[in-house]
Specification:
single chain
């Protein structure tokens, strides 16, 4: 049986309501679906941010430890350098004392050498005179 004009008219009037209901259901389901996706993304981002914050805290802790180690090593090196400077200064004083003593000894040796040379010069001419006297005495 062919549809009657009343049934066609009533189905035409119901069609916009059915389409509207279908659009409303799709819109609501799309809204809930996007809300769930947004919540999931926010949870992932929060977890990622927490993870990044933990990484940053660990990196800062490691960096602080490294800085403390460097400062400690720098202090040790500074103490070693100060010790070397003190040792070098004391050795410099010892070297100065030894140099002064060596200079004094050198002056004494020079004095003794010149005295020895003077005595050799004065005794050398007398020895031939004595030898000449001895030779003269022996000839007589």
């Amino acid at each position: 049986m062919p549809p009657t004009s009343d049934s066609v008219a009533s189905s035409r009037q119901a069609l916009p309501w059915i389409v509207l209901a279908l659009v409303a259901v799709l819109a609501i389901s799309g809204f809930f679906w996007t809300q769930r996706k947004v919540e999931a993304l926010q949870a992932m981002a929060a977890t990622h941010q927490d993870f990044d914050a933990q990484e940053v805290k660990q990196a800062l802790t490691t960096l602080q430890q490294t800085v403390q180690e460097v400062q400690s090593n720098q202090q040790k090196v500074s103490e070693q350098v100060d010790g070397l400077r003190r040792k070098l200064a004391s050795e410099g004083g010892e070297r100065k004392l030894l140099s002064d003593q060596l200079g004094a000894l050198s002056a004494r040796v020079d004095g003794l050498a010149s005295a020895n040379a003077n005595s050799s010069i004065t005794t050398a001419p007398q020895a031939p005179k004595n030898n000449n006297r001895n030779a003269r005495d022996g000839a007589r």
